[in-house]
Amino acid sequence: MRSSAELDYDANLADAERLRAMLDAIDTCPAPVVTAVQGHALGGGCGLVACSDVVVTAPDALFAFSEVKLGIVPR
Q: Which H or E element spans position 62?
């Protein structure tokens, strides 16, 4: 997210579109998607978890939308 501040509008839009396409591919995958989380799942990591069919986490896994600290509200 910090590096996106240095990108122009078109580069940021292309980056966001690549992330959306990846999450859409996971969400619509015909095979079950299993995600393992060990450590932190922040921002896009939470999106990855949300698109998965099965999620297995370590007891100390941490989930957060850290972009909120930068004034970006996830939706």
A: strand 62-64
For 4, 8, 9, 20, the CA distances from 47, given in Å and listed in that order, are 18, 24, 22, 10
Neighbours of 65 (CB within 10 A): 15
Residue pLDDT, tens place only, 3-61: 777 888 999 899 889 999 999 999 999 999 999 999 999 888 999 999 999 999 999 99
Could you tell me the sign of the dihedral formed by the alpha carbons of 6, 11, 16, 22, in that order?
A: negative
Q: Which of 73, 37, 38 is nearest to 54 (CA)?
A: 37
Q: Note whether 42 and 64 are within 8 A (CB).
A: yes
C-alpha triplet 31, 41, 34: angle, nearest 5°:
15
Whole-prediction pTM: 0.74
Query: What single DSSP character describes residue 71?
Result: T
